[in-house]
Every structure is written in C-alpha cells, then in structure tokens.
Amino acid sequence: MYTPLRPHRSHSIPLRTLRYHLHLWGEARPGSTPLVLVHGWMDVGASYQFVVDAFSEAFAAGRQIIAPDWRGFGQSRLPSPCDHYVFADYLADLDQLLDQMVGEQPVDLVGHSMGGNVAMLYAGVRPARIRRLVNLEGFGLPATRPSQAPARYAQWLDEMKQLPQGGMALKAYDSAASVAQRLMKTNPRLSQDKADWLARHWAAPKAGGQWEILGDPAHKVTSAQLFRLDEVLALYEAISAPTLAVEAGDDSLGRWSKGQYSLDEYHQRLTHVRNCRIAVVPDAGHMLHHDQPEAVAALIEQFVGDI
Q1: β-strand 243-248 against 276-281: which pairing, if any?
Q2: Rounded to whole angstroms, how far apart are CA atoms 120 and 122?
Q3: Quick check: helix, strand or coil at residue 3?
Q4: Coil, helix or strand at residue 98
Q5: Alpha-carbon separation of residue 130 from 6, 45, 221 (angstroms)
Q6: How far from the centroid of its chain's Cα atoms is residue 118's Cα?
Q7: CB burial of residue 189 (10 Å; 0-12, 13-18, 19+)
Q8: Per-residue pLDDT tens over the stretch 144-172
Q9: CA of 236: how far to CAs of 8, 60, 227, 245, 268, in Å?
Q10: Sequential DSSP letters for 9-62
Q11: Which is the most buried residue in 7, 131, 193, 225, by most CB within 10 A?
Q12: pLDDT at 307
C-alpha cells in the first residue's frame, strides 16, 4: 500500500451547523501564504495526499496546507439527515473556514472539478482573500436557458421523493479491496498501491462489514437552480488573483458533456478572467492529481511561488 511521505494531521472545527474535517500539513509561518486545496464531487480532502507528497521540501515545509472535506463528504457529516445540497453553501463554508484558519490573510487556493468551480466563484465574490488561484478541471456546466426551468424543478421534486426510497443510494462494497478496484475501474491510471490507500479514506466499514462511500447520497439530487452563465461570467470578471487553469491531456470535458459543452467554450469563458493562463498535463484524465501528481505539484509550486 502507498505510504505517505508527509502524513496529514486530522483536525475538526465547528463551522456553521456541523463539524468540518480538515487534513493539515505543515505549520503556519509568519510571512508565508497558506495553501488551501478543495476537492471535487464524491471525493475527499485526502485525495490531495499524492500532490502534497510531490511538493519540494522547501515548498511543503514553508507553509500550512489545508484540505477540507466538503460538507456531506469524508468526515464532514451533517448532524441530521439532509435531502439536498445547495451549491452556494460551499462558498459560505469556505468563507467561514478561512475566517477560522487564517483570519484575513489571503491564501493560495486550489480546487479540483467541483472544487475548482467553487474556487473560481469564491475568488470572484471575495477577490481580496485569494492571492493565487489554481483551477484543476473545474469547467463549470453547459449553459442553460430559462425555458429549461420547469423541467429542472420537476426533476428536482422527483429526485427528492426518490431519495428516501433508496432510489439515489450509493453502492456498498464488500471490502476495502473492492473499493480500490472501483477506483481503478473509474480511473485506469490509478496504481494499485494508491488505490488501496485512497480506498480507506474514500470509504469506511459499516456495522455489517460492508464498506460505504463517504458521500451523502443526497449529493446526487439535481440542483433546482439552472446554471446561469451570465452570473458565472460576472464572477469570473471580478477575479483579481492571477489564475492558472489546468486541464488533463485527455478531453474529459468532451467525454462527459456529450456535445453540450466543449473545451473551446470553456476557454472562451476563461477570457473573462483578467489574468489567466492555461496549462495541460499530458497522459492524465480528469483525476489528474492522481494520475500525474508530480506534474500537478510542479505546476502549483511554480505558479504560487512565481510572484
């Protein structure tokens, strides 16, 4: 099994209505900028372990690194059952997490996938709090039209009924090894040793012996709100931090969007960010921080250190 070079410290803080779980590396040092790493949908903060291990010693030892489990993922569980999640809550969680952990000090913010989308929006809402911004495959969603609202609300209502009936349940696995196999099936580039390690952070054993994914099934309920591109672009235009948009060599966006949204459209959206570079990680898919952690770490380290 993979052995972390820099094991994280587990830490929890009271935040809004729940206890938020954090993975911490390094120590806060005067004059250094904290690095905050936020994960994607159905993932956990521990997912960044391979990237943290790939940082140079001078970079990793010189700052505090914080990777939270978003609400309803990992060990950041809500105190009572929830039947859906609202995207804006991630912004509020991040805002109050920074209040507690770093005060008013600006941070370097990295987000993957859903976390990349949160990071981009937050950097537009609170531009003074972000010194450098790195977006790992946080493409956003296909543009919507107001005429789609009736069907979207109907879908939301239907899925809210399906949830308590088990219609949105996540699959359980008979062992951690089975979870690892599931991770490798989804991401063929993930090595066996890393999958075995990650499985024990991505899932946990239940009383009956089966392993359950550490993600609330309510996350599968579709948002009632449409993706409003004009609002997103307004937030992009408000970003003041130098921004690095990192994408994998595999066109993962083209694969999941099925023709509804393309890399060219995403790149056009990025032109609304006043200071944005694009980098590509070869031989990597959507989970590029697992596939090529050394390359991703090098991009982050160079970008946030390039003042």
Answers
A1: parallel
A2: 6
A3: coil
A4: helix
A5: 25, 19, 30
A6: 8
A7: middle
A8: 999 999 999 999 999 999 999 988 899 99
A9: 32, 29, 14, 12, 12
A10: EEEEEEETTEEEEEEEES---TTPPPEEEE--TT--GGGGHHHHHHS-HHHHHT
A11: 131
A12: 41
